[in-house]
Write a structure and sequence with these properties.
three-stranded antiparallel β-sheet; Immunoglobulin-like; alpha+beta; 15 helices; binds iron/sulfur cluster; 19% strand; nine-stranded antiparallel β-sheet
Length: 472
């Protein structure tokens, strides 16, 4: 096992001997505070993942990442490819949040919110229903093939495939209108790329959550490898209280462990049996530990039965009492400052994002044209983007940049109409009268400002862009 650098020791993974050492870990079901939190996260994340594509907002899908149309719809907001910097900011913010959470509370992301954890929890629940609890599953593993084994395994895999396909469908529903996609399913009339991604993501879900499970956390996840570098003695991690628990050994309920020269651990191994990655936390923090807290739930149940205080395994800072509070540590403050900076930056950039954008390019094929009255005409290509969900009808105006603001005349038809979340490309002629043409004739290129403006005339209903005018 590779080690990660840390100021706290991370020991190699240790498991029980015999059947527990089987490559197929069969965790035991457990109830308690952490198990409840894990299921709360499963519900919260899955309601969001499966439900969000079905939510409508002002008559259209509330959240749709339309890659083909190169538009992202997020409720009333439309994002163009030019806005991807916002997405970068959100990703940086998320990474900093993960680092801060790890520095404070260890690998809580892995234990409660990581998709690998969440789907493994769902698939394990199905497995539990189809094949029974831990011992029944272990017996089924060892049993020869029979009708009963075939039926139980078949039921489980059928349910897994169904969930995996539903997951693949829901993922694609974030990127293509989900109602149309659903309507195309019965006749298998969806497009090839949609079909590919539904099957690909379904296969990935089935493989990761059903077949590989904890092996992904143990061997494939890079975060588990470098988590140690983000921890220090004040980080809260899952900890077995060695001083209180050792020497371990069985004893009768309610007996005083100290009076018989023992610690509080009765060596029942329940903490190992419930562990989804199959490790023995009593041997110290291990890189495989995903901080799910299920061993705490199991051990607290045992301590209740033994009439001993809870907390033999707990979620706490290794430094114990007397150290500086975790939230005051330098690295946490640095992460906090980074979060505030990036968060404010993304928010300001989002709020300042214009709904109308104008790009003006002078037609290079016709430099300029002299009109019969002595005026000069230049031709421009206007590209207007409407990042809102309302149609826009915009008038085109143009001025010479500078103090006097000489006005250029746009041709009569210089009105641009842009659909909601649409882009309009048009060709517009701008004219300078004979007097001004003579006035600016000495300049190689006259700097101008082109403006498109809606009927309201408000700043949100207007866009400008700079260009040049050839006046000779
Ligand atoms: S040791 Fe405890 S917290 Fe860590 S993965 Fe196993 S059950 Fe979860
Ligand atoms: S559940 Fe508690 S008492 Fe049982 S083996 Fe684990 S640490 Fe010891």
């Amino acid at each position: 096992m590779s080690r990660t650098h840390s100021v706290i020791p991370i020991v190699p993974a240790t498991r029980l001997s015999g059947i527990e050492a089987s490559s197929n870990i069969q965790p035991r079901a457990v109830s308690g505070v952490f198990a409840t939190w894990r299921w709360a996260m499963v519900w919260a994340t899955q309601l969001w993942f499966y439900g969000m594509p079905w939510l409508n907002w002002h008559g259209r899908q509330a959240v749709l990442f339309d890659l083909e149309g190169r538009r992202f719809y997020i409720f009333g907001t439309v994002l163009f490819p030019q806005d991807l910097i916002l997405l970068t900011g959100v990703l940086v913010f998320s990474a900093l949040l993960l680092f801060a959470a790890t520095a404070l509370y260890g690998r809580v992301w892995c234990g409660f919110a990581c998709p690998q954890t969440v789907y493994t929890e769902i698939f394990s629940w199905v497995e539990h229903r189809a094949e029974g609890d831990r011992l029944a599953r272990m017996r089924l593993d060892d049993a020869p093939w029979s009708i009963q084994k075939f039926a139980r395994r078949g039921t489980k895999h059928l349910a897994w495939v169904t969930i995996a396909l539903l997951t693949g469908f829901s993922l694609v529903g974030w990127f293509t209108p989900v109602r149309a996609l659903a309507a195309s399913v019965p006749a298998v009339a969806f497009g090839p790329w949609e079909g590919f991604w539904i099957l690909f993501y379904a296969a990935a879900t089935y493989l990761h959550a059903g077949v590989l499970k904890e092996k992904i956390c143990q061997h494939a996840c890079p975060y588990g490898r470098f988590q140690g570098s983000m921890l220090d003695a004040a980080s809260r991690v899952i900890t077995y209280d060695v001083a209180r628990g050792e020497p371990r050994g069985s004893r009768t309920r309610g007996s005083d462990a100290r009076s018989i020269g023992q610690g509080d651990c009765v060596d029942c191994t329940l903490c190992v049996q419930v562990c989804p990655v199959g490790i023995d936390i009593r041997n110290g923090l291990q890189a495989e530990c995903i901080s799910c807290g299920l061993c705490i739930d199991a051990c607290n149940g045992v301590m209740d039965k033994m009439k001993a205080p809870r907390g033999l395994i707990s979620f706490r800072a290794l430094s114990g009492i007397g150290e500086r509070p975790a939230h005051r540590r330098g690295r946490v403050l640095a992460y906090g400052a980074g979060l505030a900076l990036v968060g404010v930056g993304v928010m300001v950039a989002f709020l300042a994002r214009p709904e109308l954008r104008l790009n003006v390019i002078r037609d290079r094929s016709v430099m300029s044209r002299q009109l019969p009255d002595g005026g000069i005409e230049n031709v421009y290509r206007l590209r207007v983007m409407n990042a809102s969900l309302v149609p826009r009808r915009l008038d085109v105006h143009a001025f010479v940049e500078g103090i006097d603001g000489t006005r250029l005349l746009a041709e009569q038809s210089a009105v641009v109409v842009v659909e909601p979340a649409g882009t309009s490309n048009s060709v517009v002629s701008l004219r300078m009268d004979a007097t001004n043409a003579q006035r600016y004739a000495s300049l190689v290129a006259v700097p101008i400002r082109v403006e498109v403006i809606g009927s309201s005339g408000s700043s949100g209903d207007k866009a400008t862009s700079a260009s040049t005018f050839i006046a000779r």
